[in-house]
Structure formats: structure tokens, C-alpha cells
Design goal:
This protein is an alpha+beta fold. The chain has two domains: 39 residues; 127 residues, FAS1 domain (Roll), CATH 2.30.180. Strands 2-1-7-6-5-4-3 form a seven-stranded mixed beta sheet. A hairpin with a 2-residue loop joins strand 6 and strand 7. It is globular, with a radius of gyration of 19 Å. 27% of the residues are buried. The N terminus is likely disordered.
Length: 173
Amino acid sequence: MIKQSFCLAILAFFAAGILASAQNAPSSSSQRSTLSAMGQKDILTTLATSGKFGTFGRAVAVAGLTDTLKGKGPFTILAPTDEAFSKLPADKLQKLMSHPSHLKEVLLGHVVSGKMSADDLKKAASAKTAQGSSLNFKKEGNDLMVGNAKVIQSDLQASNGTIQVIDSVLLPE
């Protein structure tokens, strides 16, 4: 009963904060977009707060890429979800995590320089990664494909770039 009351109190507190924010929201669209841009988080913080990219975040830390991906950018990150990482055989993921230099190469294969929307990627058809390889993009029905991975959520904006969420880890062939 105490836990339930505590949870309700926390919910009420956050709801009140959201309502207060909405009442104090800027009136013009230019003011809203300026405030939105100022309040945006970097790519890694944006991914961390979603709760779906824990493995990606740990891999970035192990590979020594945290400072890079929190940097100015702009970057386009093709971010595999935890579910995407779970598709890898456990021994393959463990091997990647225990070899930071190889893991770094794999992760840099998920990074494209510049801020590219899903539409930009469709038009480009390919893009060079920070690792130096080339990624191919194509439209299959209503889906945007990156190699064999499908973009399952597109154009998440961060202060230093754009995130395209993918359903598979991109591994070098």
C-alpha cells in the first residue's frame, strides 16, 4: 500500500510539472524551436534515456568512443537496439566486447558524418562510414533498409546529430 501511494505521488508530481511546462510554453513556433534545440541532449544521452540501447551504450564505452559520440558532430548514428544485439550469437557478442579495437571498427561502421534524415539516406543510396566502409540504403516497400538491417524508427534528433534506429547490428563482411 505504501509503495502504491508513493508511486501515485511521484506520478502526480511529474504530471503537475508537465502541466506547468505546457502552460508556460512559448507562443511562437520560432521560440519553441529555439528552446527545443537548446534543451536537446547529445546522441548518447538521447539513446540512454530511451532504455532500448543499453548494449550499444556499453559497447561504445568499451570501444572508447564515448567522448567522440558526445562531441560536436554532426553525426548520423545507425543505432541497433538491445533486441538487435540479442540476435547475435552470445559468443560473438562476448568476443566483440572483449576486443575493444575490433568493437570500435564495428561501431564506427554505424556512424556517418553529417546529419542525415531517412529521406536523405534514401536519396543518397550509399554513404561512407566513420570506419571507412560504405553503407548501402534502399527502400523496400515502406521500409528503409541499411544492408540487411531495417530502420525501425527514423530521424530521432539530438544536439549533435540524427539517430536512425535499426533492427540488426551491422557487421563487416
